[in-house]
Write a structure and sequence with these properties.
single chain; alpha/beta; binds 3-O-alpha-D-glucopyranosyl-D-fructose
Length: 643
């Protein structure tokens, strides 16, 4: 911007529909966020307008639509916006706990989810991520990740009234509803795609379309493959168009063309409308892919970040109580950018939360290698969080565990990265191990892609016969969850893990699912196991009780809030992960043994650089006390506090 920005026309546009009583507070929000919004969108789209005035007119229209969303925002949500404006760290606290499930698999439909609120409360859940529930493509739809209508609910799951009722009931129970927002693509039967197929030039330009293979072939040289077996390549020939359309994922998921400002404006408006239904957090799907640039992998491009930053500004203006969560399954070094930066003068807010996908994958590697070296590199590569942001830490989710994000760390001690990661992948597919998962999208045992399977199957429950084997499986599952509770972020429980639910092979009988073995770990929630949740004689109960207990302890440990410091320690034995959380004079000390051996640790040695080395310690998990030497049994974790 060459001259100082004249905010007046934007304010007029924004306020034109807003009740006078709100003008002062909305004006303050605009004053705060307009400069960034203006600059970011100008950098993205400025050159598409004849001059700056034309750009400003377009932005004023966008703010007019934003103002309509503000005017329509229900009062309870406005109250939430106000409360969260004064408690900006609300989602980073030690009490935050997520739970993730498919609506139909967990509870049949949206009304059913409401009935399950007591289950969520028993665990202490404060954030419920329901996997895609908007109207999806007819037929195959990637578990709802091919959206046909952003303003309608998938009919078999309910309707908008059900969603609004559910979100209020959750809010009353202290649980924020998180919805997927699939912003990279729409289904090929979304009205925009249909209009494009019918030859409407306006909507054709909502997508990337090419008359022949020249551009696609050129792009393909650098692109990866998300589904190399079932959806090879990144472009699909569309007969109606007689053109190639960019389809990073399945051929029926058409990538949106974010170089078109109309796409950005329409998607932003769709998000704000959903926020007004009571959605308090959006899981922004596939954020890494939002911008394409020839000669690159078309991931993590600076413009993809600008799109997210602009969305953030609009959310901060219209619905500041709402959270944005980035789903970017990328290398550790690429992750922090999704949380923005606030290095003094140049503050750029982006998403509030981001999945720490490489930490998740690395924790599984540590189990197979019985060595935490690779995971320690991930720790070392994870910078402190910007203010008012948090990691999303997790063990499993509805997708595969992708091993390729670990290539940088895996290459540090090994020359043959491919071999190292392929070994991990084979381990989890049950090759000579306790695990009972499967490889995702690769028959070739030398290829590295991903691993599928429920956590219980991967940690050994499904192969365990003896009490000892079951005990070890449980310890492994709890160790990974314990790390996700203590690392520094909001942990997410994947539905069924709290009951050690096993794999579900029934997808093989469902034609629309059989080719995608991620369905192996998308079971129907098991009510029988749930009924046994308090019986420690049962695997389900033993896991449920232990997790519930850990979570109860976690809520009492302010050191575990996401923003608290983290110091990685050097535990001599590479099987042990040791780190401090919180202040170094009253820390929480996490110790985890990722091996099947029992290991003795000398506390003075471990803490030689800290003046707490001669402390007495208590394990918060069982209240046992220890001083000079600590013995860590196979796959055991300790949460130590100073006595
Ligand atoms: C996301 O995932 C979703 O989580 C998947 O369920 C969808 O299939 C996909 O987008 C398309 O909407 O790379 O960062 O298992 O890790 O597809 C985006 C592969 C993604 C997923 C991958 C992923």
């Amino acid at each position: 911007m060459s001259v100082a920005l004249n905010t007046a026309p934007f304010l007029t546009a924004l306020l034109s529909n807003v009740a006078p009583g709100m003008h002062a507070s909305i004006e303050a929000r605009l004053a705060k966020h307009l400069p960034n919004l203006y600059q970011t969108l100008q950098a993205l789209y400025g050159d598409q307008f004849s001059d700056e005035q034309a750009y400003a007119t377009w932005l004023a229209e966008l703010l007019q639509v934003t103002g309509e969303a503000i005017a329509a925002r229900p009062l309870p949500l406005q109250a939430l916006d106000t409360a969260r404006s004064t408690d900006k760290n609300w989602f980073t606290k030690e009490n935050m706990l997520g739970y993730c499930c498919y609506v139909d698999r967990f509870a049949s439909d949206l009304r059913g989810v409401r009935q399950r609120i007591p289950h969520l409360q028993e665990l202490g859940v404060t954030y419920l991520h329901l996997l895609p529930f908007l109207k999806a493509r007819a037929g195959e739809n990637d578990g709802g990740f091919a959206v046909a209508d952003f303003d309608a609910i998938e009919p078999r799951l309910g309707n908008m009234a059900d969603l609004e009722e559910l979100s209020s009931a959750l809010r009353a129970a202290g649980i924020s509803l998180c919805s997927d927002f699939i912003l990279n693509h729409v289904a090929d039967d979304h009205p925009w795609a249909i209009a494009a197929k019918q030859g409407d030039p306006h909507y054709r330009d909502y997508f990337y379309h090419y008359p022949d293979r020249t551009a696609p072939d050129n792009f393909e040289k650098n692109l990866g493959q998300v589904f190399p077996q079932v959806a090879p390549g990144n472009f699909s020939f569309v007969p109606e168009l007689q053109e190639w359309v960019w389809t990073t994922f399945y051929p029926y998921q058409w990538d949106l063309n974010y170089s078109n400002p109309k796409v950005f404006a329409d998607m932003a408006a769709a998000l704000l409308r959903l926020a007004n239904r009571g959605v308090e957090a959006f899981r922004l799907d596939s954020t890494a892919f939002l911008w394409k640039r020839a000669g690159t992998k078309c991931m993590n491009q600076p413009e993809a970040h600008q799109i997210l930053q602009a969305l953030r500004s609009l959310v901060d203006i219209a619905a500041p109580g709402v959270l944005l969560k980035a789903e970017a399954i990328v290398e550790t070094a690429e992750l922090p950018a999704y949380l923005g930066s606030n290095d003094g003068t140049n503050s750029k807010q982006e998403c509030h939360l981001a999945y720490h996908s490489s930490l998740m994958a690395a924790s599984w590697v540590a189990l197979t290698e019985q060595d935490t070296s690779l995971m320690r590199h991930v720790f070392a590569g994870t910078p402190a969080l910007p203010e008012q942001s948090s990691w999303l830490t997790y063990v499993r989710c509805h997708d595969d565990i992708g091993w390729n994000v670990l290539r940088p760390e895996a290459s540090i001690e090994t020359e043959d990265v491919q071999q190292r990661l392929a070994r991990v992948s084979r381990f989890y597919s049950g090759d000579g191990s306790y695990a009972r998962g499967a490889s995702f999208q690769a028959d070739d045992p030398a290829a590295v892609h991903g691993t599928v399977g429920m956590a219980a199957a991967l940690t050994g429950f499904s192969s365990a016969h003896t009490a000892t084997e079951k005990h070890l499986a449980r310890q492994r599952l709890l160790l990974l969850y314990g790390l996700s509770f203590c690392f520094g972020g909001m942990p997410l429980i994947y539905m069924g893990d709290e009951l050690a639910q096993a794999n579900d092979e029934t997808y093989l009988q469902v034609p629309a699912q059989a080719a995608d073995n991620r369905w192996l770990h998308r079971p129907v929630w098991d009510r029988e196991l749930y009924a046994k949740r308090h019986s420690s004689l049962h695997d389900a109960g033993a896991v449920f009780n232990a997790l519930a207990h850990m979570l109860q302890q976690r809520r009492q440990l302010p050191q575990l809030a996401a923003q608290e410091a983290r110091h990685l320690l050097n535990a001599k034995d590479p099987a042990v992960l040791a780190f401090l959380r919180g202040s170094t004079d009253a820390p929480l000390l996490f110790l985890g043994n990722f091996s099947e051996n029992s290991i003795n640790l000398n506390m003075a040695e471990l803490l030689e650089n800290y003046d707490i080395s001669d402390s007495n310690w208590m394990n918060q998990l069982d209240k046992s006390e220890m001083k000079t030497t600590v013995t860590l049994q196979a796959y055991t974790q300790l949460w130590l506090v100073r006595k």
